Amino acid sequence: MSDTDARHRIDRIERLIHEEVGRNIFSLCEAARGGLFAAAAALASAPALRLGMITGFYVPRGTPPAAETVSSLVVRSPSAGITNGTCTLALVLGASGGEVQG
User: Fold this and answer.
1) Rounded CA separation 87/6 (Å)
2) What share of the chain is helix, strand, coil (3-state, %, to 5)?
3) Are strands 74-77 and 81-84 parallel, antiparallel or unpaired?
4) Given 33, 36, 49, 99, which is the most exposed site by the fewest CB atoms within 10 A?
5) Is the pLDDT of residue 72 over 50?
């Protein structure tokens, strides 16, 4: 896959993540725009990787404030049944040879 194809695919994923579904996270999405590709590129080029995932954070500037964002992404995985986005990321990192601690 070329760098241009990868950028296009990651930008499409970011647009889906930023889609408004009642979470009141417009300001957060605007501040983070373009960050998914930068994060993916950093992860892909890291020689030794340690990654922390934080979920369930409070978004105070929403109207009304967003109480929690955890489990906003739910994925059906053949190996794990139904899981939230963080679990899915952990499964992918583990399958890619990364060490996953929970």
Assistant:
1) 23
2) 45, 10, 45
3) antiparallel
4) 99
5) no
Q: In the numeric block, which tokens belong to residue 97?
A: 């040879």
- Please give the C-alpha separations between residue 52 and each of 4, 8, 38, in angstroms, as whole numbers: 28, 25, 16
Give the angle 23-26-31 at the CA atoms, nearest 5°: 130
Where along the chain do its domains lie?
3-49
> pLDDT tens, 18-51?
888 777 778 888 988 999 899 888 888 888 767 7
pLDDT-based confidence at residue 74 (cuts at 50, 70, 90): very low
Q: Give the span between the Cα atoms of 40 and 46, in whole angstroms.
A: 10
77 SS3 class = strand
Predicted TM-score (pTM) of the model is 0.56
How far is Cα 80 from Cα 2, in angstroms, rounded to an integer?
31
Tell which residue, 77, 73, 69, has the closest CA to residue 94. Answer: 77
